[in-house]
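Progress report, Aim 2. The chain analyzed during this reporting quarter is listed below.
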Amino acid sequence: MSLYHFVEAWRFVFSGGLRGASLVAIWLLCAAFSPAQQSAQTPELTRTVRTWEFLPVVGTRAGLFGNETGRFEAWVYPLKIFRDFHLIFHVGDRALPAESLARTLTVRPESASILYVGDSFRVRETLCVPVNEAGAVIQLDTETEQPLDVEAAFTGDFQLEWPAALGGTYVDWDAKLHAFVFGEEARKFAALVGSPTGGDAHLAYQTNYSSAEENSLRLGVAQRGKETRVLVIAASVGGRVEAEKTYQRLLTSYVDAMRESADYYRAYLDKTVNLELPDAALQQAYDWARISTIQGVVNNPYLGSGLVAGYRTSGVGQRPGFAWFFGRDSLWTSLALNAEGDYSTTRTALEFISKFQREDGKVPHEISQSASLVPWFKDYPYAYVSADATPLFIIAMNDYAIQSGDVAFAREKWDNVWRAYQFLHSTYDAQGLAQNAGIGHGWVEGGPLLPVKNEYYQAGLGVEALRALSNLARLVGKDDISKQLAAEFESGKGVLDQAYWSPENKIYAFALKQDNQRVNEPSVLATVPMWFGLPRAEGADEMITHLADADQQTDWGMRIISSQAKVYDGSGYHFGAVWPLFTGWASVGEYRYHRALSAYSNLRANALLATDGALGHFTEVLSGDYYQSFATSSPHQIWSSAMVVSPILRGMLGLQADAEKHQVIFAPHVPADWTSFAIRNVRVGGVGVEFEYRKTADSLVLETKRTGSGEFWVEFSPALSKRTEVVSVQMNGRALPFKLQPSTSDQHLSVRFPVSNGPNTLVVRVRDDFGLALANELPPLGSASRGLRVVHESWNASQDELTLDLSGLAGKEYELAVWNPGQIASATGATLSRAGKLQIQIPKGADGTYVRQTVVIRFVKR
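Predicted structure tokens for the chain:
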């Protein structure tokens, strides 16, 4: 039920339409607009057109890539059909370019609509790429006061995706089909672009005395009132007959195809983990991040289905962003897919990557969509250029097996993971750490941070791969190998920490040189080993303190290195830029080591990009100096979307499914001022579970519901302040044993309980609960950072004093939200407002510079 129909129904009630209606009828009306009904709605975002922003509309077999003015190019993988598509409106003797009249953009998962408005007409252009069709639909809804003709024009660009090529190509007009027909000499590849109302076609031509690059057709004059026109794009790698079948099918059933695509995304949101969060921006970003991530699935007619890396326009070239298959991109993305319960897509990605594993076990880095048409794996240097895809493959396979319980797939792929380990082992240096030198790049592909022997990032992944493979071996019944690898892991973990920890700088070094000397550059890449819990708690805490300051953390995410580094350049792709990928790594790592305030700032920095770039999507890379995407960035980058999902589910909510143990770990670090939230559709095996969390000043309540049969356990471990006392824990009114696990910044209650079919209400009574919260925002486009940084928090031994090391713009005032402000007796360096906010005045300094401020909070005596 839409909001419109809900409001109209209530008007009917109060106008007497239900005179004498019972309270039951009114309750049923309210129920019709319940949150459950809302979750079935298709997400939608609308804003005023930004002429420079990227606009993607994609399915698994095709894509439209352009900008918000309506100029775009069309792809049916692996074919590019045309570029520079645009509309021209003809009113009387005037020809009006559509881009000058673009006013608003509305995006949905399956489509995008641009509203063009003239003096006497408006046209809504809806672009849709049906999920499983080798084509696209453009629907034009016109509303006019006088005759209006719409012309569609484009530049033909019929070619294969990089690096393959077609020979001689042509485009003709087929009057019977009302369509342009694209072809080539071998007659293997074909495409059609047309409309049942199309006519007055003009073909591009070139002679020795004149030429025209554009093809165009008129869609027919719309008379006064409302009318609809449609234009269809279809293509095939099997020849013209197949392309025509797709073309005709879309012409006759495009309405159904658009509806089915909307249903596909709606069902996807419903079947994966659902959240109800008090942070509306975070809620919206989570839903769109799931959509953007699944839009990375591409079904290539030659190679099969896998995950591509991202999308942007190709212009006059043959590469639409990173719309080809990448190993490490798929593997990092799979961790988000597992977290949200989309095991099917993870399995598809792992299956695809494993098909192209090298004989010696090395896992591929890049696979072009035209790889089968050229000697890609033999003559091109890109296929196996990275080293990190190999350990990531082992890690991702284990994560999938743990959460999905699909041990049969792990057994089927054992040879692949074992060969990956054999290759990884062959890259070890004398210390037993995975190398980059002579093997392939880790994260950094070029620039002044190189050369190095092995990055901490790569060496850390190599160590974690040992733990992952040990568990996989155990799952498939290879106990001797499992024990051997477990021992290797324990040894490697210690060697890793000793090799990269710099005691004099209190950081983990970026890398080791050939002589094993540390490259003592603090880098956000250190948060990757933190993601997996590899560093010592004390070392990780020191490293996070370095990373949380303003030289490393911007308002829009994490720089790869400090802005104070000698080699830093804010425009440096691998030596200064901000990647949402880095920001996601940092957030998960910070949550793992209980640094929730900086973790949430990084999480929100990524999440807010959903509505501040390519609408509903997340960019690849931004400037390190100013809030602005790189001109070369892929604005719809798949692992950037994944780095909203993983920090929310794995980081903030601490969700981890374990199918073998029939349990879910739920260890949340939610902001202190969140009083309620819900998690639904968490699935482990055949059991589904949902959580509803509420808190007051003296209690936490967790209600757990389940569906399905079988054993099911929850390990609940919420973060509490070090000052909070737990008075009692009860499940359905009965006392439940619990433990408290302290860290440097907080403590975690730990309880484990089975979830029955009946009510499962856990009540935790607390005393002296306390917390701080910071909800950061993105700055205006083009601005430098201006937000507050929480660099470090430390408690005294008696937990009656908390010291905050903060960093903010010189002379600026900030606020921190306070949970239970009555606990504060006094504060130095800040004041407590009547509204219960902690107000911090940063000392004066040079304009635009960040200045440190120490705040000491003293608490009332118990």
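The CA atoms of residues 432 and 643 lie 30 Å apart. Confidence is low (pLDDT under 50) at residues 1-39. These observations will guide the mutagenesis work planned for the next reporting period.
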